[in-house]
Design a protein that fits this description.
Elements lengths: L2 H73 L4 H4 L24 E8 L4 E6 L19 E4 L6 E2 L9 E13 L12 E12 L2 E12 L8
Antiparallel strand pairs: 1-2, 1-5, 3-4, 3-5, 5-6, 6-7
């Protein structure tokens, strides 16, 4: 073989090896970038999904308190002033109908549950607990852990003896009852501040959603 042809052949073979190495490096870089992008997209999708669930859980709680206020307005229409903050319970849903002093909402932390039997929401106060703090083990934190019914997908505070799997979410309702400074006690606690906190841990990071609203007794007259 001619010397020039042999020299050219050796050079082409060497260049081919370099090209293969460069192509391999580029391919690995592209695949690594794609893997990182896919991982981040998955994490973002999980974060968005959890946040949507948390917002809906918070909205449900806020609407449940509003629903209770409205139910009291209708149910005790002859005495809204004293009973618009009535705190009925699932076991005895008519506790405010008697002639005695009604059980009213007070400052504190609550759970909310929907009763299929009575087709309405009920609040239940959880005593001796702290403001929800995720992931720190605040006092009474376990009381606000949410579970999910496998068949209905309904969120509940009841694990049903272990049949309802635990979710990553914790939900707490804080009620702050304030007396109108203008008319004092005659308005019988005319404003109710509702704060709903939903927290969860995601990738070892604390996440939370907080919603707040104020409910009023718009019938602010001394008598009806």
């Amino acid at each position: 073989m001619h010397p020039l042809i042999m020299k050219y052949s050796h050079k082409a073979r060497g260049e081919t090896i370099v090209e293969v190495l460069i192509a391999t490096v580029l391919l690995v870089s592209v695949l690594a970038s794609a893997f990182v992008a896919l991982t981040r997209a998955t994490q973002t999708n999980i974060n968005v999904q959890n946040r949507v669930v948390a917002i809906n859980l918070a909205r449900e709680s806020m609407e449940s308190v509003r629903n209770i206020r409205d139910t009291n307005w209708l149910k005790y229409s002859g005495n809204r002033r004293e009973k618009w903050l009535c705190l009925d319970s699932v076991g005895t849903p008519d506790t405010c109908e008697g002639g005695g002093a009604p059980t009213l909402m007070v400052d504190g932390y609550y759970q909310t549950n929907f009763s299929d039997t009575f087709q309405r929401y009920f609040l239940s106060i959880v005593p001796s607990v702290d403001e929800l703090d995720i992931p720190n083990d605040s006092i009474g934190l376990a009381s606000f852990r949410l579970y999910q019914e496998p068949l209905t997908g309904k969120f509940t505070y009841d694990d049903d003896g272990g049949d309802n799997p635990a979710t990553p979410f914790y939900r707490q309702i804080e009620l702050d009852v304030a007396t109108d400074p203008v008319c004092g006690t005659e308005c019988n606690e005319a404003k109710l501040k509702v704060t709903v906190r939903v927290g969860w841990v995601e990738n070892d990071l604390s996440k939370n959603v907080i919603l707040e609203t104020h409910l009023f007794d718009f019938y602010q007259r001394d008598a009806y």
